[in-house]
Amino acid sequence: MSTRSWLVLVAVGVLLLLALDSFYIVNETEKAVLKRFSRVEQADIEPGIYPKVPLIDEVIRVDGRLLTHDVPTQSFLTAEKKLLNVDAFVTWRIADVQRYIVSVGAGANSGLAMERRARELLDPRVNEALRNQFASRTVQEVVAGRGGALPDEALDPSAVSSGELMNGTTSAAEEADASTSGDESAASGQPDPDAGSGPPPEKDDQREELMNSVAEEVNAATMEDLGIEVVDVRVKQVDWPEQVRGRVFDRMRAERARDAAEHRARGREVAERIRAAADRERTEILARAYEGAQKMRGEGDARATNIYANAYSKDREFFRFYRSLQAYRDSFSSSDDLLILSPDSEFFRYMKDSGSN
């Protein structure tokens, strides 16, 4: 192949590259910025196909979807000066693309590199907001459900997931706080009787209020500095530090053992009452039955006596004869019977003289 042919091929290749670099595509899930000589010419470009100057214009694309970032676990002090390990995550999206690229880009033209840098910048802001909110609340306010009451499900010493936090169940930190503070009513999941009837039912969830406050505080800082909109901040797990968790769980177990002993004592008391009532009822039923039986037996004896009397009055001699026959039958019913009587005894009266009247 000649030199002229090579030059033609190179020229065609260059023209093809220039043609391909003369337009760009923005997808539906992306946000883009057009830069020319490091100066932003067009920001927040809508999805579509657009022309650009080859080799001069540069297009920077970032993810325009809702993103989730898992914030590393940090320890925060509550208003009661109790240390808690908090694991949270934040959902965010890019609201101002131009400000985001200028603040987060730091010379990086890759969307993934800028996203990693944005996550690094989000961590201290989220932690600062969580620290501020936790410092103004007690442990119970941090983990309590609607109305601030501690539900009875808080028996599991394991930490609470984000879904459980939204449904109103509590973590080990909640129960342990009740144990360490000596508040028996809080530890058993019942409101303190000294505190009245508790907050009204329409009161907002304190945990929801905490999360909303954190999200608003972080969003106010990131929108102005980074062009990032923080949609929500949620706590996945609240737990005691490892160095105090064992003592806290021991106190929880002691609290539960005391509650169990109290319930058993109440159960035994109720059982004794039921047993005593049953014994009393049994005695009364037997007494009434014995009374009825004796009454019926007396009436039967009276009727039998009356029948005997009537029969005796009709034919006294026959009645005496009949009773004698009954006595003979009962006396001589067995071959082993032995009677030692005088032959002149009245007992053999009808055997000696069957014709007597």
Rg from Cα: 50 Å
Give the integer mean of the pLDDT values: 76
Amino-to-carboxy terminus distance: 170 Å
Net shape: rod-shaped
Tally of strands: 8
Count every helix, treating DSSP H or I runs of 4 or more residues as helices.
11
Which sequence of SSEs, written as H and E, runs from N to C? HEEEEEEEHHHHHHHEHHH
Strand content: 15-25%
What is the helical fraction, as a range of percent? 40-55%
* Quaternary status: single chain
What low-confidence regions span 5 or more consecutive residues with pLDDT below 50?
146-204
Secondary structure class reads alpha+beta
Largest sheet: 3 strands, antiparallel
- Main sheet: strand order: 3-2-5
Structure, described:
By secondary structure, this protein is an alpha+beta fold. Helix content is 53%, strand content 18%. It is built from eleven helices and eight strands. The strands form three sheets. Strands 3-2-5 form a three-stranded antiparallel sheet. Helix 3 packs across helix 8, helix 6 packs across helix 9 and helix 9 crosses helix 10. It is rod-shaped and about 170 Å long. The N and C termini lie far apart (170 Å). The relative contact order is 0.09. About 17% of the residues have low confidence.
Give structural attributes:
three-stranded antiparallel β-sheet, alpha+beta, 357 residues, 53% helix, rod-shaped, 8 strands
